[in-house]
Amino acid sequence: MRRGQTTKAPAGPALPSPVTSTNPPCCKPLPGATPPPVTPPPVPPVAATKLTAAVYGDAPYGTSPSDTSQFQATPAFIDAVNADPKVQLVMHVGDIHSGKQYCTAAYDQSIVDLWARFADPLVYTPGDNEWADCHKTGEGGGAYNATTQRIDYSTDSSGNPIDYANGTRSPTWTSCG
């Protein structure tokens, strides 16, 4: 078939007319009754049916506990998202820190404080670095000691467990809102 050419559909059995009265579908209209006109619902403008979301993840990410380059760049990123009038929703798909950064309540709170700058609603889905990896040594957790049959938690230079190392979660993420 060539562009612009049309074909006629083969004739088939006639389809029944839809019931257009106020009677239930199982009933026939009353003799002499005029069915109400069928008015389709209004179609919203195309722009009203679209959603523009800014989606990102693995940020702010550092390659070590002292790498704050992405963290420091985040305010400018948030300002750029806020300046885009099309954006209606921000979604973070997880991993607010890398496997080389410590899981600390202070860091989590600093992320919450940064995200408060977003003008649009934010949806956050924790990544594996937040909910499954914080027990690892590189993120401030610890390692299983077969001799003692306990976890040897990572400690700071003063010998104190690093934030999540005591097995508790940050109060920052305990509830919605």
* Sheet with most strands: 3 strands, parallel
CATH class category name of the domain at 51-173: Alpha Beta
What spatial order of strands do you see in the largest sheet? 1-2-3
Helix content: 10-25%
Number of strands: 5
Distance between the termini: 58 Å
Going by helix content, strand content and strand pairing, the class is alpha/beta
Could you tell me the mean pLDDT? 76
Beta-strand percentage range: 5-15%
| C-alpha geometry | elongated
- CATH overall fold name of the domain at 51-173: Purple Acid Phosphatase, chain A, domain 2
Radius of gyration: 30 Å
Instruction: Write the H/E string, N to C.
Output: EHEHEHEE
How many distinct helices?
A: 3
The CATH architecture classification of the domain at 51-173 is: 4-Layer Sandwich
Query: Which residue ranges are poorly predicted, with pLDDT under 50 across at least 5 consecutive positions?
Result: 1-7, 165-177
